[in-house]
Amino acid sequence: MEKRSLGARALVFPTPVIIVGTYDANGRPNGMPATWGGVCCSDPPSIAVSIRADNYSYDNIKLHGCFTASIPSERYMVETHYMGLASGRDNNKFESLSLTPSRAEYVNAPLVEEFPVSIECRLSQTIELGSHTQFIGVVLDVKADIAVLDTQGEPDIALIKPLVFDPAKRRYFGLGAPLSKASALSRRMD
Amino acid sequence: MEKRSLGARALVFPTPVIIVGTYDANGRPNGMPATWGGVCCSDPPSIAVSIRADNYSYDNIKLHGCFTASIPSERYMVETHYMGLASGRDNNKFESLSLTPSRAEYVNAPLVEEFPVSIECRLSQTIELGSHTQFIGVVLDVKADIAVLDTQGEPDIALIKPLVFDPAKRRYFGLGAPLSKASALSRRMD
Questions:
Q1: ∠ Cα A82 A83 A86 (to 5°)
Q2: How would DSSP label each residue in B64-119?
Q3: How far apart are CA A105 and CA A109, in angstroms?
Q4: Burial of residue A113 (number of CB atoms within 10 Å: 0-12, 13-18, 19+)
Q5: Which end of chain B is more exposed for a tag (fewer CB within 10 A), N or C?
Q6: In chain B, which residues have pLDDT < 70?
Q7: What is the ipTM of this complex?
Q8: Average pLDDT over residues A130-153
Q9: Which residues of B106-116 are buried (b: 16+ CB within 10 A; e: fewer)?
Q10: All residues at 6 or more sequence positions from A143 whose CB lies less than 8 Å from its CB, including other chains
């Protein structure tokens, strides 16, 4: 296999697309897509999202000490993408996109009602990294549309149909075919 | 849409599967899959991986102050999964799996030669989060198999075929169909 150096670049394949939900000082809801983020700890369950200081959401998270992370399904790709082009400073993106901001139960931040999974987070650490600030939030609750739960009540990613992001060429993909259940592999290899 | 509370859980959909490459004190290569991780900063380009303190890789990263992040293609799902079941304390996983550890160019850590993308990282911050420690690494170089580069020399995720992980039911998926190029959406919505 011949390898080529691509230089120092911010790449991992794939990344998720997380809509960070916040209220501004006037209580206006905002949502912005973060592709630099994910789970960072199991106990306490925590997720991280990295945001630039000039994003409106940055001020909102600092103000309220909390945020939500909603996972859009692939049918909301255009709305998701628009949220990354527009700024909450200039307009209410929820109104522009006919999306419904519903107040989270445990934190002072909005969920995107139409998205199948939403995660409520209390800010626990703020890490300065350079162009981006990483906000780490302890998960207080996860809410899921009952339509994406399996018969055991577990969220089923094949029903969620999350966006899968390619950070190199900035493209959205869908979820592919299931390859295997890790637990099945565990039994085989124990 | 009826939503159900699932409680406080560590979930984001999807997560990547990152093979963290390190050497131990004797220079023996190790690789472990991390699904808690991703890009966390654009400038300096940085990635984060979260690891438990009892993982062998934890000691190795602390020892050498660096690590690599290799992205397995879906054809290496079984090898990837095995790396998560075995410990580098007991055996050389590279040998067990007939994978080739090649020394990174800029850091003292091994790359998985057979995997299409490898990222060389110098440890920049260590964040204690609870069950997991988040290691943040500044990317010094990305290396890619020329077979996964497009005609412009850019890595093409559709050729990389990374694993896509479902943290709720711990299953591996492939990459799905391309939905859209973000730049195409930008033009339409500008």
A1: 80
A2: HSEEEEEE-BGGGHHHHHHHHHS-TTTS-HHHHTT--EEE-SSSSSEEETTSSEEE
A3: 9
A4: middle
A5: C
A6: 181-190
A7: 0.94
A8: 98
A9: ebbbbbbbbbb
A10: A105, A111, A117, A118, A119, A120, B3, B4, B5, B6
Inter-chain touch A11–B170, beta carbons under 8 Å? no
Residue-averaged pLDDT of chain B: 94
Strand, helix or coil for residue B63: helix
Q: What's the angle, vertex CA B166, arms to CA A114 and CA B127, rounded to 5?
A: 95
Distance from CA of B124 to the nearest CA of A (A): 9
Mutation choice for A interface testing from B2, B40, B141, B151 by most A CBs within 10 A: B40
Q: How far apart are CA A3 and CA A7, in angstroms?
A: 12
Judge whether A45 is closer than 8 Å to chain B, CB to CB: yes
Give how far the C-alpha of residue A154 lies from the chain's centroid of Cα atoms, to the nearest Å: 19
B contact residues 69-88, partner A, Cβ 8 Å cutoff: 69, 71, 74, 77-78, 81-82, 85
In angstroms, the CA A62 to CA B72 distance is 37
Domain extents in chain A = 18-189
- Taken in order B22, B24, B26, B31, the sign of the CA dihedral is negative
pLDDT in tens, B140-181: 999 999 999 999 999 999 999 999 999 999 999 999 999 976
Average of per-residue pLDDT values in chain A: 94
pLDDT in tens, A65-114: 999 999 999 999 999 999 999 888 888 999 999 999 999 999 999 999 99
A33–chain B Cβ distance below 8 A for any pair: no
Please tell me the pTM assigned to this model: 0.95
* Beta carbon pairs, A and B, within 8 Å: 342
**Beta strand residue intervals within chain A, DSSP E:** 3-7, 18-23, 29-34, 37-42, 45-52, 66-71, 101-103, 110-112, 117-128, 132-145, 164-166, 171-181
**Parallel/antiparallel/unpaired status of strands A132-145 and B110-112:** unpaired
Fold held by A18-189? Pnp Oxidase; Chain A (2.30.110)
